[in-house]
Amino acid sequence: MDWADELAASVSGPQVINDSKTPSGTVHVGSLRGPVLLDVIVRAMRARGLETTYLYGVDDMDPDQESDGHASYARHHAQIFIDIFAGLGIRPDRYYWMSEIYPTGEMDPFIRKALDKAALVRDIYRRVANVQHPDTWHPLQVVCENCGKIGTTIVTGWDGERVAYQCRPSLVEWATGCGYTGWTSPFGGRGKLPWNLEWAAQWSLFGVTIEPCGKDLATAGGSRDRSDAIAREVFDREPPLNVPYEFVNIGGKKMSTSKGHGAAAHDVAEVIPPEQLRFFFLRPKPNQAVEFDPDGTDAIPRLFDEFDRFAAATAGREVREVLAARSRGRRRR
Ligand SMILES: [Zn+2]
Questions:
Q1: Angle of helix 223-233 versus helix 118-129 axis, rounded to 10
Q2: Cβ distance 154 to 168 under 8 Å?
Q3: Distance from C-alpha of 40 to C-alpha of 17, rounded to nearest angstrom
Q4: N or C: which end of the chain has fewer CB within 10 A?
Q5: CB 237 within 8 A of CB 139
Q6: Handedness of CA 266, 272, 273, 279 (dihedral sign)
Q7: Cβ contacts of residue 114 below 8 Å, gap of 6+?
Q8: CA of residue 164 to ligand 1 center, whole Å
């Protein structure tokens, strides 16, 4: 993994490597590419003697997209996904759930800063992403005190302690707001930052130094650009190093389980052994797209053949570690 060794050689000091996921249903196998790449980066860092922490988060603060009162919907799918990691030799040092972080108050300083600098945030969206928010728009959503939903509320004012908000019936397609308007405290789990701000706040909160992201987030004016600008200008911090990576495609298109397009990660992990599955993600460089159709007649046999060819070609050469023994022996010193 030359690219990971080069990355490790280019940094110094303790490293915090972060990845997070917003599950909106069954997670497809392509989503494993990020965790596998991060695991390789972590191993490369530790092989160079760098103290390295691997964080994996779930953005589940507003999980009830079905509006069926089943708050653990995102959590359920995220847990099934996370449960695959250990079998692949991926062992983050810490998992965090944003639905647990917000109530602790740890996000409150970032919520306050974002609200204090609402005009600057609107300006960043306009400059970086060409998104024009109304002058009353504030970068926060709060839990409606009447109906309990978050996704349906918009914040229109901020007096330094409380926010003015509206619960709008037709703000989003997947839920109907109740029409309530009022003032409430945004702190202690009653408010949630929009994704771009939440991401930038995570970098500050956890001291993240490296965070790879999928290419859909890394486009010009996209999520990463917005969060980078928010980190610098709103939270006064340099964003982490990015390692953009390509998609896993099926039939030339990005896998997407919401479109019924791609195979569930946990199903594939049951069929393909860990060595071959890791090999599948790591054989190409991060910036190369991979095509995979597990239902295709020869996709899996081809993967095994290629793995065997590589294994034969490297037989007898020095191997840095073997998969099963790796991360346990390499815990932080
Ligand atoms: Zn409401």
A1: 140
A2: yes
A3: 11
A4: C
A5: no
A6: negative
A7: 121, 139, 140, 193, 197, 201, 234
A8: 13
pLDDT band for 325, please (50, 70, 90 cuts): very low
Which amino acid would we find at residue 141?
Answer: Q
Q: Is the distance from CB of 278 to CB of 272 less than 8 angstroms?
A: no
The region of weakest confidence among 59-73, 94-108, 261-275 is 59-73
Cα(172) to ligand 1 centroid in Å equals 13
CA of 148 to the centre of ligand 1 (A): 6
The tens digit of pLDDT for each residue in 285-318 reads: 898 888 877 677 677 888 888 888 888 887 777 6
C-alpha span between 102 and 189 (Å, rounded) = 5
Alpha helices (H) along 23-143? 33-47, 73-82, 98-104, 108-116, 118-129
How far, in Å, from the CA of 154 to the mean position of ligand 1?
A: 10
Contact (Cβ atoms closer than 8 angstroms) between residue 65 and residue 75: no
Q: Enter the pTM of the model.
A: 0.87
pLDDT at 324: 44
